[in-house]
Amino acid sequence: MPPLLDWHLTQDTSNDQAYAILAQDRVMNCFSLADLEPPMREYSQFALACQEEGDERAICLILRHPSIGEVISPFGSREGMAAIMQQLTMPEHPTIQAQELHMPVLQRYYQPETTWRGMLRMAVTPSSIRSPLSMPLQPIKQLTVSDLPALESLYAQHPESVFSADLFTQGLYFGAYAGDRIIAAGGTHALVPAHRIAVLGNILTAPEARGQGYATAITAALVETLFEQRFSLVVLNVYEDNTPAISIYQRLGFQTHHRLLTGQAHLSRREA
Q: Which of 44, 80, 138, 149 has its CA 20 to 30 A from that of 108?
């Protein structure tokens, strides 16, 4: 591919410039907005491509975090993203989260480790939230550091959950116990108080407790508490084939804003 000469690249743009673009779609860019803030900004790069003659822009979050790993999340012009990929040194083994618009560009350079998976990005606001119709048998409680060993034990049984104990104290978690075991839990992946955005994740119920309303109650508790703390937008990701979870979120008032493709990938070639 010949050089894209009409694009100007900034390898890591300023927070103000990044925010001006990312804020155009707060749902799509919820993680990127979180990564503009400390402590995540230390590990985040925001590559910016600007058309030299015109108003087209593209921005790409490149995260390199010791616990979370490498992540790529693009936004904006597909041609601008092509300029970024062509001119920038990209991560070797990232997790990619991208709209279908950007996949042809990304797939010039990256191959998935397995297959790309479809994922829905859903969001709820104070005006659209709905309360659950019933509550499960065991009470839902906010979790503290003293609950961390039991919480880690739950997630250790489900390695598909990306849980970082290092980030636990910076977030908000709820769970339910049966005896000394946590049988269901969920929390926040990211909090952005400056922009009143919260991102939920790791909502999980042990197999023996499924179908009893724990995921619904925990999600509702998280959202209600976040709105009480003056957050105005709560976002989550769910795989598009997880029909039970999607139904839960829809009953609570979440609406789908975007379909993304995601997966672990490896850098297969570099274009000059």
A: 44
Interval 35-47: pLDDT, tens = 999 989 999 999 9
Nearest to 222 by CA among 206, 248, 251, 199: 199
Question: Tokens 């990127």 appear where?
Answer: 32
Residues 6+ apart with CB under 8 A from 184: 136, 175, 176, 204, 205, 206, 209, 214, 215, 218
Cα dist from 172 to 148, 157, 202, whole Å: 12, 21, 11
Domains of the chain and any CATH numbers: 7-118+261-267 (3.40.630), 129-253 (3.40.630.30)
**Is residue 69 within 8 Å of 32, Cβ to Cβ?**
no
Query: Distance (Å, rounded) from C-alpha 205 to C-alpha 155?
Result: 10
Looking at per-residue pLDDT, the higher value among 128 and 133 belongs to 128
The per-residue pLDDT for range 19-36, each reduced to its tens digit, is 999 999 999 999 999 999
How is the chain split among helix, strand and coil, in percent rounded to 5? 30, 35, 35
The whole-model pTM stands at 0.93
Give yes or no for a contact between 94 and 212, defined as CB atoms under 8 angstroms apart: no
Give the whole-angstrom CA distance, residue 199 versus residue 225. Answer: 13
